[in-house]
Design brief:
The structure holds 2 protein chains of 2 kinds. Chain A is built from 11 helices and 7 strands. Chain A is an alpha/beta fold. Chain A has one domain: Thiamin diphosphate (ThDP)-binding fold, Pyr/PP domains (Rossmann fold, 3-Layer(aba) Sandwich), CATH 3.40.50. Chain A is globular and about 55 Å long. Bound molecules: thiamine diphosphate and magnesium ion. Magnesium ion binds next to β4 of chain A. The site of thiamine diphosphate has 16 residues of chain A, from β2 and β4.
């Protein structure tokens, strides 16, 4: 069974808007970092936008997801507010994590976004545990764990998939195979080409999807979430994609052959979708331009707002170490 | 009349908290129908069923990681690590995830989780099934660390730990399960015990011996020996290492003027080092002698009983060490 999801033109323009919002958010963050306004690491999601937007399109309130060090795209696709994201990158009091997390730990618990993660593979058991709690509570919710090709060599991946299959947990394991783990190409870090093959080891359904085709991602997400909600267990989805930039801001990515980069740049998920929108789906150029303008304005305003936000007070450094610190005794 | 053991205490604490709150569940290896390697979860499967008893494959990272993820969604899991030595396989989920999530997300969510770990020697259980690793966890902000020495404390502290909003590491000494010293009765009611309140097990005036878990019982026996020789030792059990009852210990030091710390973990880097350093700086005026630390030799735990007895502190070695200390200290 392949789920067919039919979208209206407006819904399709919305998908495009979300992808563009992620793209521009990351480009702007990169410029702000270059200006010295953002301390710490940034791992841009540019090139992989269709995966986050396609998967999150099929999520509902009460669902939960975990992300990676490359987490901004997932968070925006889940509906997080770019203002508060920039404020967090700026390490300000009104940022999502009140300036205590930054890019690597950004969380929006209200939207079930259980966090980026600084540990490769670290979020996979967390999402699996979230799925366990949904199963226990029969909430009908699903959990999603996003991770990279590199993370599938971590023990957390194997331990989690084994249990999720055994207990038929309502979860989607979404591997964004962008061909590299840091500076190491996939054929140098694992002997398989298709991560989806690993599903067989856990008697789990594994599917491969073009991660640069947002509607193709939506189709597999629709089927996998329907199976999960129906109690039929987890799915391993491998989305083939590519990061346009280096591993993190500052990495020139010279380890990648030029032909490979050229091949994937021609398969830019936004270009591909824009062409379909204006061709096959009959969107007019003005509608697309209006989206571009709105995204630009939103992000300019967001970054400006973030820049005006207060820094955390130094007294907050020992706040929230514990929910109950026993009047500070646990802090001593 | 049966005796209420340390194992009974733990089982009852879990069962009572499960009755009180359906979001409490256990997760771990062989905890289900088989009742666990030490029989701690016996009858819980029959009583509480699959919904509250999640018997997992041998996957320590996943045991803890799933518990953390479920706790983030509002559950109150009790994860079991069969031997604390195996917690090394789950360190990322404990140290990098559970301990820090509340803080690094700016307090957005909490991780109300208990990780029970079976600690210490079982008698020739050797290097990979005998360690006392509590000092690794006391050094991680965000964790609370408990070390009950008696059945009543085990029950009261575990109930409080399950109700606590933060991640709690709960150490159970495997040689205490049989439970010497418990009161008579099948089910003994114990209220949750507030963390950070130590307990004087034996009053004394010459020296304070701080100890916990199985070593506390060695220290108590050593104190009886010493009493016959005219040395009056106060034996004080912190019960919880984080938070730690500094005021309680300070009061005892004020009375005795001398401090000895005895635990099963190696002396170097053991939690005793923290207690000693704190006392040396905060109770300096009350101390009439340098602080003595007693612990395992700085070696892995060996298999041969004769070697194990040499490496670990015993009643006799504690008595000897305190005797020599008192000679020097007079
Ligand atoms: C446990 C752990 N090991 C190593 C790292 C350093 N590191 C950060 S990202 C990364 C590569 C991850 O590759 P992949 O999972 O494919 O994700 P991608 O970066 O391609 O999105 C590495 C090795 C880390 N953060 N955590
Ligand atoms: Mg990768």
């Amino acid at each position: 069974m392949t789920a067919t999801v039919t979208k209206t033109l407006d819904e399709r323009l919305e998908l495009f808007r979300q992808m563009l919002l992620i793209r521009r958010f990351e480009e702007k963050a990169s410029r702000l970092r270059a200006k010295g306004l953002i301390p710490g690491f940034l791992h841009p999601y540019i090139g992989q936008e269709a995966v986050a937007v396609g998967i999150c399109d099929q999520l509902r309130d009460g669902d939960a997801l975990t992300s990676t060090h490359r987490g901004h795209g997932h968070m925006i696709a889940r509906g997080a507010d770019p203002k508060r994201m920039y404020a967090e990158l700026y390490a300000r009091e009104t940022g999502y994590n009140r300036g205590k997390g930054g890019s690597l730990h950004m969380m929006d618990a209200d939207r079930g976004f259980l966090g980026a993660n600084g540990i490769v593979g670290g979020g996979i058991p967390l999402a699996t545990g979230a799925a366990l709690q949904m199963l226990r509570g029969r909430t009908g919710g699903v959990a999603v764990s996003f991770f990279g090709d590199g993370a599938t060599n971590e023990g957390t991946f194997h331990e989690s998939l084994n249990i999720a299959s055994l207990w038929k947990l309502p979860i989607l394991y979404v591997c964004e195979n962008n061909l590299y783990g840091e500076f190491t190409r996939q054929d140098k870090h694992q002997s398989i080409k298709d991560v989806a093959d690993r599903a067989a080891a856990y008697a789990m359904k594994g599917v491969i999807v073009d991660g640069n085709d947002v509607e193709a991602v939506i189709a597999v997400a629709a089927e996998a979430t329907a199976r999960a909600r129906a109690g039929e267990g987890p799915t391993l989805i491998e989305a083939k994609t590519y990061r346009h930039r280096g591993h993190f801001e500052g990495d020139m990515a010279r380890y990648r052959p030029q032909e490979e980069v050229d091949f994937w740049m021609k398969r830019d998920p936004l270009d591909l979708y824009e062409a379909r929108l204006t061709g096959e789906f009959g969107a007019d150029a003005d509608a697309i331009q209006a989206i571009r303008d709105a995204v630009e304005q939103q992000l300019d305003a967001a970054a400006e707002w973030a820049g005006e936000q207060p820094h955390p007070d130094p007294s907050e450094s020992t706040e929230d170490v514990y929910v109950d610190s026993y009047e500070g005794a646990a802090l001593r | 009349m049966t005796t209420f053991t340390y194992a009974d205490a733990i089982r009852q604490a879990i069962s009572e908290e499960m009755d009180a709150n359906s979001d409490v569940f256990m997760i771990g290896e062989d905890i289900g129908e088989s009742g666990g390697v030490f029989g701690v979860s016996k009858t819980l499967w029959e009583k509480h069923g699959h919904h509250q008893m999640w018997d997992t494959p041998i996957s320590e990272t996943a045991v803890v990681g799933l518990a953390v993820g479920a706790a983030m969604m509002g559950a109150r899991p009790v994860a079991e690590i069969m031997f604390s030595d195996f917690s090394m396989l789950a360190m990322d989920q404990i140290v990098n995830q559970a301990a820090k999530l509340h803080y690094m997300t700016g307090g957005q969510l909490s991780v109300p989780l208990v990780i029970r770990m079976v600690t210490g020697t079982g008698g020739s259980t050797a290097a990979q099934h005998s360690q006392s690793l509590e000092g690794m966890f006391t050094g991680v902000p965000g964790l609370k660390v408990l070390a009950p020495s008696t059945p009543e404390d085990a029950k009261g502290l575990l109930r409080a730990a399950i109700q606590d909003p933060d991640p709690v590491i709960f150490f159970e000494h495997k040689l205490l399960y049989g439970g010497r010293g418990g009161p008579a009765g099948d089910v003994v009611p114990v209220d949750p015990i507030r963390f950070g309140v130590g307990r004087i097990h034996r009053e004394g005036t010459d020296v304070t011996i701080v100890s916990y878990l199985r070593t506390l019982h060695h220290a108590l026996a050593a104190a009886e020996e010493l009493a016959e020789e005219g040395i009056s030792a106060e034996v004080w059990d912190p019960r919880t290492l984080v938070p730690f009852d500094r005021a309680g210990l300070a009061a005892s030091i004020k009375k005795t003027g001398r401090l000895v710390i005895a635990h099963e973990a190696p002396v170097r880097g053991g939690f005793g080092a923290e207690i000693a350093a704190w006392a040396a700086s905060e109770c300096f005026g009350d101390l009439t002698a340098p602080v003595l630390r007693i612990g395992a030799q700085n070696a892995p735990i060996p298999y041969a009983p004769i070697l194990e007895n040499t490496v670990l502190p015993t009643q006799a070695s504690i008595a000897n060490d305190v005797r020599a200390f008192m000679k020097r200290a007079r």
